[in-house]
Amino acid sequence: MTMWSLRRRPGRTLGLLLLVILSFLVIRSWLLQDSGMKLRTTYKGFTEAVDLYFDHLMSRVVPLQYKHGGPIIAVQVENEYGSYDKDPAYMPYIRKALEDRGIIELLLTSDNKDGLKKGMVHGVLATINLQTREELQLMNTFLVNVQGIQPKMVMEYWTGWFDSWGGPHNILDSSEVLETVTAIVDAGSSINLYMFHGGTNFGFINGAMHFHEYKSDVTSYDYDAVLTEAGDYTAKYSKLREFFGSFSDVPLPPPPKPLPKMTYEPLIPVFYLSLWDVLSFIGEPIKSEKPINMENLPVNDGNGQAFGYILYETIITSSGTLSGIVRDRGQVFLDTVSIGFMDYKTTKIVIPLIQGYTFLRILVENRGRVNYGNNIDDQRKGIIGNLYLNDSPLKKFRIYSLDMKKSFFQRFSIDKWTHIPDVPTLPAFFFCGFVIGSSPSDTFLKLEGWEKGVIFVNGQNLGRYWNIGPQETLYLPGPWLFRGNNQIIIFEEVMAGSVIQFTDTPYLGRNQYIH
User: Fold this and answer.
1) Above pLDDT 90, what percent of the chain?
2) Does the pLDDT value for residue 10 go beyond 50?
3) Which residue out of 78, 80, 492, 493 is catalytically annotated?
4) 295 tagged catalytic
5) In what order do the strands lie in the sheet with 501-503?
6) CB neighbours of 228 closer than 8 A, spacing ≥ 6?
7) Confidence band (pLDDT; 50, 70, 90) for 427?
């Protein structure tokens, strides 16, 4: 079969490359219940899960291949494995697993410049992921030398980059994008724009990176992409449309009009529930001599807890130094008073003088699992191992699973909510309702004055907010809203604001140009 490449030749139409990308970057948390789990290797526990997954998936994919009359012309084997490369037998195993189940189309690998050499598999076409023309030169030299005369493909041309909490908003100049895309096409290479359309890490599904330090991704995956998170056009879109339009013999049709955005009236939350009050009606806690990490909690039919928060509670009778491994961020309380946080950098905290029996509570947030690099096996969340007070392990824990799924909020009956006091006890849930009189439109939420938490709209988890930025607004799609009554619940960890604002314009933070 032929992989189409894009070249500026008069009268030539553009070929479309359709890929099914089979990757295990989004690791299922239940795999980590196995203390010896080695992800993305031929470790038996992992390959058994891959085989089961492929048995179900390939039965659906195989009939859709081009040779069977379908649209699938190529299948990517894993993703950027060369940057991980823990097991030389793994990629050949994945290739065989695909072929044994009936995959007969072109197989591909995909790696950045650092992993390209190690990510290649014999008999599989290697492609490259890049952002600069210098990296393109690598493709033209290394791949041609290794593969000879083969189709060339930039599997991921990065049109921007994602953002991490506490960092800047990354952007890539549209002129640089056009120049690099032009160079890729002039080199006779096919190209895939990553991302063409920005997206959103709704709920708790954002990932994280951990090289020198742990950094979790923000809720927005706008990526400074060709189309924004809300689907709006950008300067990149206009320039690339004109460029790719030059391959066509006929004028391009006008693009669709952008969806309307709306600024709704500000909302003032009226009702509230302290987390400590919620504990009394969400069910019995799990009792354990030692802390249990999130994935190994005996919940969800034995599958553990995947996302959200987890609360550990025990009784102490003395002060001293509290120490332990908390993943990813734990707010420490004496009874209901916050005394600080534990995380990757802060592994110890001083417990001040106390009198008598005191509840020690640690509210731990899973901020997102690392999905790239060498730390993917270390993504168990909660308190990992023992928690120590003055180097003595604490015992007799009560553990609450706070996954904040829809079933969690179904226990919040109307009679449980109370009016917000002058000084609310935090962490807490805040509730407000509002009415939309016409057909709902896309909008953006702005939580100025609030510090850190999660927002739920009509029972769906919109995502996290945090005043350290860079993201300052959360994209709220119109289809999430109803004509008529709507409701918002905010879970705030630290400091509650007084109003929820809407805007028709996103603000993703201070820009930093990618070089």
Assistant:
1) 88
2) no
3) 80
4) no
5) 473-476, 443-446, 501-503
6) 198, 222, 234, 506
7) very high
